[in-house]
Amino acid sequence: MAYRHALNEIRIPTLERIELYERSSGETSDVVQKQLYRVPRAAEAAGEGDQALRPEGTPGVIRAYIDAGLDRSDPEQRFFYSGSMFRYERPQKGRLRQFNQFGVEIFGRADAACDAELIIMIDEFRRALGLDVRFEVNSLGDGNCRPAFRAALLEWGRAHYSELCEDCHQRLERNPLRLLDCKTDAELAKSAPRSLDYLCAPCRTHFAAVERLIGIAGVPCEVNPRLVRGLDYYTRTTFEVTSSAVGAQSAIVAGGRYDGLVEALGGAAIAGTGFAIGVERTALALAPERYGAGGAPDAAIVAIGAGAVDFAIELARELRARGRRVELLSPERGVKALLKRADKLGARYALIVGEDEIRNGVVQVKDLRAGVQTAVARAAVAAAVAGQPD
Questions:
Q1: Taking the CB of residue 220, how many other CB atoms lie within 10 A of it?
Q2: Does residue 390 surpass a pLDDT of 60?
Q3: Which of 11, 142, 253, 347 has the fewest CB atoms within 10 Å, measured from its CB?
Q4: For the purposes of burial, counting CB atoms within 10 Å of the CB of 41, is it exposed (0-12), middle (13-18) or buried (19 or more)?
């Protein structure tokens, strides 16, 4: 994907100064307030300031972009990065203290086509993996129209103060947009003002162009006028890709436009936009609940007796060479237990091999969904496993 979209790799350090995240993510964001792994400076490093393990990639990429002088010498750049991120929070399904991300950042492009390209890029990723996901997009406006939206949200929040959770009480005066990002008050937020109703003419034109372009590309995207990101730097286009297979932490891809962030971090007034893919959440979205992140095998091989193991190893090798997902089960357990294990894994077929099968040149192929077992010639097993319709 990175090659096809002419992206260049950038590598960013694991440790960055805390001030970088306070200035980029926003002091009111959960990332800064609750989730940073802070690393206090050593006594001999006076004046250097505390550092933090990176909770996200965008600020580090921008810092490197500015340090290299690209914001002034060659501002239009296309980067991708990957690596571990760290956030101090209660671990749960889809939420880890150490997790991995693949991210894309594009600088020097303020046009709607660039936003659309990112969403189309993610759709290509989705299609390649066969993910069942939902695309949502919104516009938060810019410096011209967003203040009116913010004021409307502030007024709404004050009117519903007694109904808001404690976290939203803290957010209300400092950053009322965060009220829309609260999971506790999600139902109440349905009555909040909509960002799309406050867009100025240029922002409406920009968002309409994004919608039109992703429509041309056939991306199944829904407009969610209450979609905001948990980070303070987004402007105009924001988007999320979610999966019901991940659980409460359903977003597997998120991103948007951040046109003022490069300048806020000390660089030139350069436009920027990007996204990050959560690797672990994507793995969860790929797999059935009962099997985990890898996906159910096409076939599980049951070798009966030590003499059948050599045969089973060769059969597994051939099937894998043909692109099938195969698990070779332990030959030290009974047939009944192994068939139960194959069913638990979600395998479509159990391939049963014993001395009689080897002698007769066949494999017992059991369709675990249909409950039908058939003796198949050894040479036809690969076709039998690959050719049956789902």
A1: 11
A2: no
A3: 11
A4: middle
